[in-house]
Write a structure and sequence with these properties.
This is ATP-dependent 6-phosphofructokinase. The chain has 789 residues and is an alpha/beta fold. Helix content is 40%, strand content 16%. The chain is built from 24 helices and 25 strands.
Length: 789
């Protein structure tokens, strides 16, 4: 999925950062109030294949453009609409993009356009833009669409000269429209564009694939069948690879890395071994562009015929096709597209005649701008490497995230024979602590399988630290975790009990089972629990072993990590429910919904869920509010409701304020909105913790747990002296999380300066509030970087 740098921080250093406030001085930051769009016209179009999330990008461009005072135009039907002109180019209003955030595909239409490929077609397009004084173009599409836009920009001056010579425009029009600025956003479900971590639509396509795989697994298990699934990806195997990793597929075929010669025998042997170990099903995933080493296509039918011929298994083929492009966009795609849309408008406002056409992109949690043609060139390099059969080079060019996915898949998918495994003679225990979070089971599966591959004996502890001191510890084998990736909750069982009062019993269990290392997967209780264990090392030598924590909590409130396993699934649950709640009011009179989310004292779910669901206001603990703020919010919403907007959404984090409860907010809005709108309230509750994990949480859990075990192996080797493991230094009790920005404090578990707090002004702008938006991190055009881990 989205590229991440995994970062090890010692528990003590994460805790120290958590307790030290860092203030970012106001005067070093740059705000966008001085960027004005007055007198400028921006046009937005979607081109090429559609992708879920394109509408969120269009909505963000329109609203941000209007917010800064520019005129914004829709260009319907992509480049075809630009060439044809007329009613295809229409001015957009704030209300015209209302209710399109949750719609899949592209509302303004997309079309392949042959005419735009000819100079004559581009001449007509230029004429249509000049007629409306449009000199800023925002193109949402794949690399072909963006290359076309760049060519259009390069030819702009000569096109204007030609129009002037033909008498179609006058001297003044040519002068006032002399510069064309272009910003691209990549909308493509294949994630085949170099330079951006994730393209708009990829995460939603993975959601569609995983929904189908989960459904197929139940029927395959009933009949002991093998299923061959064909997914999209003519030139890029990202969807196939990540979905294989997310569902624990037995075999995957991708264009970048064709199987070695003799793969037919290897695959059949693997499927046969899997059945002999008790598995009732096999899943094989094939990317539509998969080839063998000799350039022959590996089709789903070819794979099916092979399995039937060699093994006689009952085998079925499912081709997912355009299902992958359909459906509503995932929470991630809505946020990605909204952030990119706002960044695109800022890039257009700051563009000058010398600025190269850029593409706005996401690297980690940061929105960046990259030179469009550099990215296109690098994307073409991948294809060239594949054509020349330089497959290792093709994988390298795809970026470190792709490489990591591939190596993690290889590590987990094939069980070596016992004779091939190294014998480390170390015992590693895995446990879940705190509330259940979707993706915990994927993390446990990865930990167990990587641990076995590294030669360790793996032990599962039931019911967290409570089960630990009660001795609920047993060895867990490779086959025991089969099919765990798609299961929600915690199959090991989890409790919130802390170990502090039971240290003697825990130390005794560590001695009885000879536990040499601990992997704790959980939330804030896991974090505090490991701090308690590591602080007791001087009293209990049994606790002098490597300990690592992997953050898994829907609240996303662990110091030292930007994201936690489970928070993406919870976010999608909130977004889906908000969509349904809003839809429940369609056709009725104007209605406002007050919705309470989980998150403890952390406003992550409410804020990011609010951005994904198109909320008008979000109340969180980190941003104190008083009765005057509530009053201003009600008045703002009342004014909006007097226009054509019919539905309002207000999100409140469960602990945002002890006095302004959800009931209080509901009653206030009900009273103040009387005669304009009526109110309903919903408390989302535990449905945010349940359900099957999202593709992101499966992938994140899998990769982070695999890294954790590799860290344990290295630390065990370093700590093994005189026939025993002894690890009592600070750096042997760690937290493994996503790379974080500056972390500092608040008393309720969470660092004060979180990356997602910067999304709040963006959410307010898209809800029509005047606000201050810090753009210090924007505006830097970066050249092609070494792809992130």
């Amino acid at each position: 999925m989205f590229n991440f740098t995994l970062k090890i921080s010692t528990l003590f250093s994460a805790n120290a950062r958590f307790k030290n406030k860092s203030s970012s001085s106001q005067d070093t930051r740059k705000f966008f109030e001085n960027l004005s769009g007055t007198g400028k016209s921006i046009a937005v179009l979607t081109s090429g294949g559609d992708a879920q999330g394109m509408n969120a990008a269009v909505r963000a461009v329109v609203r941000m453009g209007i917010y800064v005072g520019a005129k914004v135009y829709f260009i319907h039907e992509g480049y075809q609409g630009m060439v044809d002109g007329g009613d295809n180019i229409k001015e957009a209003t704030w209300e015209s993009v209302s209710s399109m955030l949750q719609v899949g595909g592209t509302v303004i239409g997309s079309a392949r356009c042959k005419e735009f490929r000819s100079r004559e077609g581009r001449l007509r397009a230029a004429h249509n833009l000049v007629k409306r004084s449009i000199t800023n173009l925002c193109v949402i599409g794949g690399d072909g669409s963006l290359t076309g836009a760049n060519l259009f920009r390069e030819e702009w001056s000569s096109l204007l000269d030609e129009l002037r010579q033909q008498g179609l425009i006058d001297e003044e029009a040519a002068r006032s429209n002399s510069e064309l600025h272009i910003v691209g956003m990549v909308g493509s479900i294949d994630n085949d564009f170099c330079g951006t971590d994730m393209t708009i639509g990829t995460d939603s396509a993975l959601h569609r694939i995983i929904e189908v795989v989960d459904a197929i697994m139940t029927t395959a298990q009933s009949h002991q069948r093998t299923f061959v699934l064909e997914v999209m990806g003519r030139h890029c195997g990202y969807l196939a690879l990540v979905s294989a990793l997310a569902c624990g597929a037995d075999w995957v075929f991708i264009p970048e890395m064709p199987p070695e010669d003799g793969w037919e025998d290897s695959m059949c042997q693997k499927l046969s071994e899997s059945r002999s170990r008790g598995s009732r099903l096999n899943i094989i995933i094939v990317a539509e562009g998969a080839m063998d080493r000799h350039g022959r296509p590996v089709t789903s039918d070819r794979v099916k015929d092979l399995v039937v011929r060699c093994l006689g298994f009952d085998t079925r083929v499912t081709i997912l096709g355009h299902v992958q492009r359909g459906g509503t966009p995932s929470a991630f795609d809505r946020i990605l597209a909204s952030r990119m849309g706002v960044e695109a408008v800022l890039a257009l406002l700051e563009a000058s005649a010398t600025t190269p056409a850029c593409v706005v992109s996401l690297v980690g949690n940061q929105a960046v701008r990259l030179p469009l043609m550099e990215c296109v060139q690098m994307t073409q390099e991948v294809q060239k490497a594949m054509d020349e059969k330089k497959f290792d080079e093709a994988v390298r060019l795809r970026g470190r995230s792709f490489e990591n996915n591939l190596s993690t898949y290889r590590l987990l998918s094939y069980r070596k024979a016992d004779s091939e495994l190294p014998n480390s003679s170390f015992n590693v225990a895995v446990l879940n602590v705190g509330a259940p979070a979707a993706g915990m089971n994927a993390a446990v599966r990865a930990a167990v399988r990587v641990g076995i591959t590294e030669g360790h004996k793996m032990f599962a502890v039931s019911d967290g630290f409570e089960g630990f001191y009660k001795g609920q510890i047993k060895e867990i084998k490779w086959g025991d975790v089969g099919g765990w990736t798609g299961q929600g909750g915690s199959l090991l069982g989890t409790k919130r009990t802390l170990p502090g009062k039971h240290l003697d019993k825990i130390a005794e269990q560590m001695r009885i089972h000879n536990i040499n290392a601990l992997l704790v997967i959980g939330g804030f209780e896991a974090y505090v629990g490991l701090l308690e264990l590591s602080s007791a090392r001087d009293r209990h030598s049994e606790l002098c072993v490597p300990m690592v924590m992997v953050p898994a909590t829907v609240s996303n409130n662990i110091p030292g990590s930007d994201l936690s396993i489970g928070s993406d699934t919870a976010l999608n649950a909130i977004t889906d429910t908000c969509d349904r709640i809003k839809q429940s009011a369609s056709g009725t009179k104007r209605r406002v919904f007050i919705i309470e989310t989980m998150g403890g004292y952390c406003g992550y779910l409410a804020t990011v869920g609010g951005l994904a669901a198109g909320a008008d206001t979000v109340y969180i603990y980190e941003e104190p509010f008083d009765i005057r703020d509530l009053q201003a919010n009600v008045e703002h919403l009342t004014q909006k409701m007097k226009t054509s907007i019919q539905r309002g959404l207000v999100l409140r984090n469960e602990n945002s304020n002890e006095n302004f409860t959800t009931d209080f907010v509901y009653q206030l809005y009900t009273e103040e909105g009387r005669g304009v709108f009526d109110c309903r309230k919903n408390i989302l509750g535990h449905m945010q913790q349940g359900g099957a994990p999202s593709p992101f949480d499966r992938n994140f859990g899998t990769k982070v747990a695999a890294k954790a075990i590799q860290w344990i192996t290295r630390t065990l080797t370093d700590s093994y002296k005189g026939g025993r493991v002894f690890a009592n230094s600070e750096d042997t009790a760690c937290l493994l999380g996503m790379r974080q920005t500056s972390v500092s404090v608040q008393h309720h578990r969470i660092p004060k300066e979180q990356w997602w707090l910067k999304l709040r002004p963006l959410m307010k702008i898209l809800a029509k509030y005047k606000t201050s938006y810090d753009v210090s991190d924007s505006g830097q055009l970066e050249h092609h970087f070494e792809p992130h881990n």
